[in-house]
């Protein structure tokens, strides 16, 4: 039976800097967007069972195969970068990094994809993960690389090929044969309307902190959002934390409640992984409540200010936080499986409902 695991997902700038930011719109920084060495931050420990050279003998070209696929795919569809990154987030914050988000629903119930927070995950991202798995199976001569490792690598490479930092990815995860319940998904993935106290409650339960929360939120520097995710900030009364000019832009995209349109999460550089997301927050141009409150709330405001001023600081912390997130409640060794199809448990796997029935019967002494 799967081991019990905790669920649910996620310092100081000088006062003069904050006064300056409050008095005038912050301009974009001119730092070069380059891969950043994370040596200046303490790296998180590698979880037991994972290593940076896990496939050195069994499939030495595994990372290269994933990298080449993502590079080509993102070149053809830049939106896929955000889609792959978001898949990794939505997997790890619910039941841990076990590729359970990729499982289709079954007779035992709907899968994680049918839960409301996952309804807008990109179909092209799911297809890309299975395409990568197929390529790896051919190159590695069998099921060697897990779907959860593919998710972690594809997310990192999506960041790199949209202009963001590279970082090392510990490998050796196994895939779960069981998806989480819809309620697990709802409790593990904070809503766009969440404020900092609620966000911190979620991330602290899974071993992350304020710096991780702010850095990982920076993934919103790429990608799109539906009007339904932020329309409550516009109607019936505008959220006073939205700058007037940005409010006008949002109402042009979403002129009334219920309009089904999409808007860039970062309107300055929507297809570039950089620190402009934080510049937006300082200028009161964050799209979600969960974005803008990072600057409004004193617990995270200084970190936002630091990342807005220094892209290097953001990139360093993002790499460290992604390594931490990517190791949440991982399955290793005999705890999981390497799925032959990332969308389905391997043939012969006992469904989760049967596992529960067997456990209950055993506890009653029936066998």
Automatic annotation (TrEMBL):
<feature type="signal peptide">
    <location>
        <begin position="1"/>
        <end position="29"/>
    </location>
</feature>
<feature type="binding site">
    <location>
        <position position="96"/>
    </location>
    <ligand>
        <name>Ca(2+) 1</name>
    </ligand>
</feature>
<feature type="binding site">
    <location>
        <position position="269"/>
    </location>
    <ligand>
        <name>Ca(2+) 2</name>
    </ligand>
</feature>
<feature type="binding site">
    <location>
        <position position="91"/>
    </location>
    <ligand>
        <name>Ca(2+) 1</name>
    </ligand>
</feature>
<dbReference type="InterPro" id="IPR002016">
    <property type="entry name" value="Haem_peroxidase"/>
</dbReference>
<keyword id="KW-0349">Heme</keyword>
<feature type="binding site" description="axial binding residue">
    <location>
        <position position="220"/>
    </location>
    <ligand>
        <name>heme b</name>
    </ligand>
</feature>
<dbReference type="GO" id="GO:0006950">
    <property type="term" value="P:response to stress"/>
</dbReference>
<feature type="binding site">
    <location>
        <position position="98"/>
    </location>
    <ligand>
        <name>Ca(2+) 1</name>
    </ligand>
</feature>
<dbReference type="GO" id="GO:0006979">
    <property type="term" value="P:response to oxidative stress"/>
</dbReference>
<comment type="function">
    <text>Removal of H(2)O(2), oxidation of toxic reductants, biosynthesis and degradation of lignin, suberization, auxin catabolism, response to environmental stresses such as wounding, pathogen attack and oxidative stress.</text>
</comment>
<protein>
    <recommendedName>
        <fullName>Peroxidase</fullName>
        <ecNumber>1.11.1.7</ecNumber>
    </recommendedName>
</protein>
<keyword id="KW-0732">Signal</keyword>
<dbReference type="InterPro" id="IPR000823">
    <property type="entry name" value="Peroxidase_pln"/>
</dbReference>
<dbReference type="GO" id="GO:0005576">
    <property type="term" value="C:extracellular region"/>
</dbReference>
<feature type="disulfide bond">
    <location>
        <begin position="147"/>
        <end position="342"/>
    </location>
</feature>
<dbReference type="GO" id="GO:0140825">
    <property type="term" value="F:lactoperoxidase activity"/>
</dbReference>
<feature type="binding site">
    <location>
        <position position="190"/>
    </location>
    <ligand>
        <name>substrate</name>
    </ligand>
</feature>
<feature type="binding site">
    <location>
        <position position="112"/>
    </location>
    <ligand>
        <name>Ca(2+) 1</name>
    </ligand>
</feature>
<feature type="disulfide bond">
    <location>
        <begin position="227"/>
        <end position="254"/>
    </location>
</feature>
<keyword id="KW-0560">Oxidoreductase</keyword>
<feature type="binding site">
    <location>
        <position position="266"/>
    </location>
    <ligand>
        <name>Ca(2+) 2</name>
    </ligand>
</feature>
<dbReference type="GO" id="GO:0004601">
    <property type="term" value="F:peroxidase activity"/>
</dbReference>
<dbReference type="InterPro" id="IPR019793">
    <property type="entry name" value="Peroxidases_heam-ligand_BS"/>
</dbReference>
<feature type="site" description="Transition state stabilizer">
    <location>
        <position position="86"/>
    </location>
</feature>
<keyword id="KW-0479">Metal-binding</keyword>
<dbReference type="Pfam" id="PF00141">
    <property type="entry name" value="peroxidase"/>
</dbReference>
<dbReference type="GO" id="GO:0009505">
    <property type="term" value="C:plant-type cell wall"/>
</dbReference>
<feature type="disulfide bond">
    <location>
        <begin position="92"/>
        <end position="97"/>
    </location>
</feature>
<dbReference type="GO" id="GO:0046872">
    <property type="term" value="F:metal ion binding"/>
</dbReference>
<feature type="binding site">
    <location>
        <position position="94"/>
    </location>
    <ligand>
        <name>Ca(2+) 1</name>
    </ligand>
</feature>
<feature type="binding site">
    <location>
        <position position="100"/>
    </location>
    <ligand>
        <name>Ca(2+) 1</name>
    </ligand>
</feature>
<dbReference type="GO" id="GO:0042744">
    <property type="term" value="P:hydrogen peroxide catabolic process"/>
</dbReference>
<keyword id="KW-0408">Iron</keyword>
<keyword id="KW-0873">Pyrrolidone carboxylic acid</keyword>
<feature type="active site" description="Proton acceptor">
    <location>
        <position position="90"/>
    </location>
</feature>
<feature type="disulfide bond">
    <location>
        <begin position="59"/>
        <end position="140"/>
    </location>
</feature>
<comment type="similarity">
    <text>Belongs to the peroxidase family. Ascorbate peroxidase subfamily.</text>
</comment>
<keyword id="KW-0325">Glycoprotein</keyword>
<dbReference type="InterPro" id="IPR010255">
    <property type="entry name" value="Haem_peroxidase_sf"/>
</dbReference>
<dbReference type="InterPro" id="IPR033905">
    <property type="entry name" value="Secretory_peroxidase"/>
</dbReference>
<feature type="binding site">
    <location>
        <position position="274"/>
    </location>
    <ligand>
        <name>Ca(2+) 2</name>
    </ligand>
</feature>
């Amino acid at each position: 039976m799967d081991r019990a695991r905790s669920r649910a997902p996620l310092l100081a700038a000088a006062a003069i800097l904050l006064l300056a930011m409050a008095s005038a719109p912050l301009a974009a920084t001119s730092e070069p967007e380059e891969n950043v060495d994370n040596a200046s931050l303490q790296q998180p420990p590698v979880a037991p069972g994972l290593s940076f050279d896990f496939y050195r003998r069994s499939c030495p070209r595994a990372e290269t195969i994933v990298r080449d696929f993502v590079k080509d795919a993102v070149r053809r569809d830049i939106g896929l970068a955000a889609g792959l990154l978001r898949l990794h987030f939505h997997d790890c914050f619910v039941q841990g990094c076990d590729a359970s988000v990729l499982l289709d629903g079954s007779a035992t119930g709907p899968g994680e994809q049918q839960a409301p927070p996952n309804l807008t995950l990109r179909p092209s991202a799911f297809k890309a993960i299975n395409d990568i798995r197929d390529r790896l199976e051919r190159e590695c001569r069998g099921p060697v690389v897990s779907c959860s490792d593919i998710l972690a690598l594809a997310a990192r490479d999506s960041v790199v090929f949209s202009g963001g930092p590279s970082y090392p990815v510990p490998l050796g995860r196994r895939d779960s044969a069981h998806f989480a319940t819809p309620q697990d998904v709802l409790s593990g993935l904070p809503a766009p309307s969440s404020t900092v106290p609620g966000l911190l409650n979620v991330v602290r339960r899974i071993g992350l902190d304020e710096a991780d929360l702010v850095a990982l939120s920076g993934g919103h520097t790429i990608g799109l959002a539906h009007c339904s995710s932020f329309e409550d900030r516009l109607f019936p009364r505008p959220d006073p934390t939205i700058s007037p000019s940005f409010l006008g832009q949002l109402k042009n995209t979403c002129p009334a409640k219920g309009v089904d349109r999409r808007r860039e999460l970062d309107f300055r550089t929507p297809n570039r992984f950089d620190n402009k997301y934080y510049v937006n927050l300082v200028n009161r141009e964050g799209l979600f409540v969960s974005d803008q409150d990072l600057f409004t709330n004193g617990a995270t405001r200084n970190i936002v200010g630091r990342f807005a001023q220094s892209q290097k600081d953001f990139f360093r912390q993002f790499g460290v936080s992604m390594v931490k997130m990517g190791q949440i409640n991982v399955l290793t060794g005999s705890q999981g499986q390497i799925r032959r199809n990332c969308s389905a448990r391997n043939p012969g796997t006992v469904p989760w409902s049967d596992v529960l029935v067997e456990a209950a019967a055993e506890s009653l002494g029936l066998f």
